[in-house]
Specification:
The protein contains eight helices and 17 strands. The protein is α+β, with helices and mostly antiparallel strands and 477 residues long.
Length: 477
């Protein structure tokens, strides 16, 4: 009887999975995966796969650059046309703000309105824990009752001296988790000891203990964010889930802290929040904050997609060092800059990027601090400001040896530092140069670094996303 039930279930399963295999005449014809067209990301350019010589295009003994390029190949990826702007990063900050407000409107200690969370699914089954209802609008201040108004204003901070009220940076905290698929895939990390070694001449110890480390974060009872890296024996797939809690508000004080004995207070007050700077690149963003933005952007996109395909897209992320250099040089090994010659001015003497043209002269290129994105012509790939304006974070951990130790296929070096690691290990590669750099430092083949928790008035970022599918490689003549 059990065999009959199994056969009946098998017939149902096969019948529900597309065409019948019995209709192939006994020939191997293959079974197609579900067809799904990846949407083209808004504001991004597709960089087709290709190869180039990564590293300095020419020897420069004055700056200590030695020509030692490495041939590498890069797969196709999408990349933002411009650096992430204040307006775009503000969307992230306001999303965090609104999520906090909705939580408090639901919280009995504030608004106590159950409608701000979804507690049951469409079938009436309870959702544990309840999730925020983003379709329910936050009431305006004029229509909010006293409790609702208190919940809405609780995210603000008022300067007790000046009386100025603004969004409280300390409350703008974003929590997210990332599954370390690479760590999980490594053979040495297999949960079953018998799968860790393929050599059949070696006797496997079934009691072998594998020690793993994972990042975790939580809020203590006194409200402090505790981030730590824990080490423990491997026990399950959950050991590869890393959790982070990041304060995502830009550091507006970088305009004062980056420049001693300078009057930059107006930028500190206005640059991120004034509408006149909407289309300027976001700065004061650490590498850690940029990664949090990439994760939020991924989840924000997924919520708009069909549930069957939301996990089919590749996540937004920071570009690898190699991807940034390839995109900046328009895929051409001979290009030292995003343009096709080694000068920094065009035929008519106009500057091709925003940098520091002269000694103490920030204005010669027509700008003083970062320029509005896309103020200069794009490179051959259609990308703006790949040299100058603001330098940009990459995902790559910084080592002096750089590309030499990386693979020649999608080169990348990653090292996720523990909180206890020496600070020197927390360097990340920064590329592109900025508005405060001289011409040499905005070259596409020049690499530098910054510490992952540091925030600067001259460092921003843009996102990339690996293309799903395949594109033809153009033959080189």
């Amino acid at each position: 009887m059990k065999n009959l039930i199994f056969l009946a279930l098998a017939a149902i399963i096969f019948a529900s999975c597309g065409r019948s295999l019995s209709g192939d005449g006994g020939e191997l014809t293959g079974v197609s995966a579900p067809v799904w067209g990846e949407p083209s990301p808004h504001g991004m350019v597709l960089i087709k796969r290709g190869s180039f010589a990564m590293g300095p295009a020419e020897k420069d003994s004055l700056w200590g650059n030695y020509q030692d390029p490495k041939g590498v190949s890069i797969d196709a990826f999408w990349i933002d046309e411009t650096e992430i702007t204040n307006a775009e990063y503000r969307q992230f900050v306001y999303w965090v703000r609104d999520s906090i407000i909705r939580e408090r409107l639901y919280d009995p200690a504030f608004g106590g309105n159950d409608l701000f969370k979804i507690e049951e699914d469409k079938e009436g089954n309870p959702i544990e824990p309840p999730i925020l209802d983003w379709k329910r609008p936050i009431p305006t201040e004029r229509r909010a009752n006293e409790d609702e108004l208190a919940a809405m204003l609780s995210v603000n901070w008022t300067n007790p001296i000046t009386g100025e009220s603004k969004l409280d940076p300390k409350q703008m905290v974003f929590r997210y988790s990332i599954f370390d698929a690479t760590g999980y895939a490594l053979r040495r990390n297999r949960i079953d000891p018998a799968e860790r070694v393929r050599n059949t001449d070696i006797t496997i110890d079934p009691n072998e203990i594998v020690i793993i480390s994972k990042d975790t974060a939580y809020v203590s009872e006194d409200g402090k964010i505790i981030s730590e890296t824990i080490t423990r024996p491997l026990s399950s797939i959950w050991d590869f889930l890393n959790t982070y809690i990041v304060n995502i508000y830009p550091d507006e004080t970088v305009w004062v802290n980056d420049f001693n004995n300078a009057y930059n207070e107006p930028y500190m007050r206005l640059y991120f929040n004034h509408p006149g700077y909407n289309d300027y690149p976001a700065v004061g963003i650490s590498w850690e904050q940029a990664n949090a933005f990439c994760h939020w952007r991924t989840e924000f996109l997924k919520k708009s997609l069909d549930a069957n395909f939301k996990n089919s897209i590749e996540p937004y992320r920071l570009p690898t060092e190699a991807e940034f250099e390839y995109a900046a040089r328009s895929g051409k090994s001979e290009n030292a800059y995003p343009w096709s010659f080694n000068g920094v001015t065009g035929d008519k003497g106009c500057f091709l990027g925003n940098f520091k043209p002269g000694d103490g002269d920030y204005t010669k290129d027509g700008h003083f601090i970062p320029a509005k994105v896309a103020s200069f012509s794009p490179n051959e790939f259609g990308l703006y400001d790949m040299a100058g304006n603001v330098a940009e974070w990459t995902s790559t951990a910084y080592l002096e040896s750089g590309p030499e130790i990386m693979s020649d296929m999608n080169p990348e070096y990653r090292y996720n530092t523990a909180k206890e690691d020496p600070y020197a290990l927390k360097k990340k590669v920064v590329r592109g140069g900025s508005w405060k750099d001289v011409a040499h430092n905005i070259r596409s083949d020049v690499r530098t670094f910054e510490y992952q928790n540091e925030q600067r008035s001259y460092i921003g970022f843009r996102c990339v996303r690996t293309q799903v599918g395949f594109s033809k490689v153009k033959s080189k003549k």
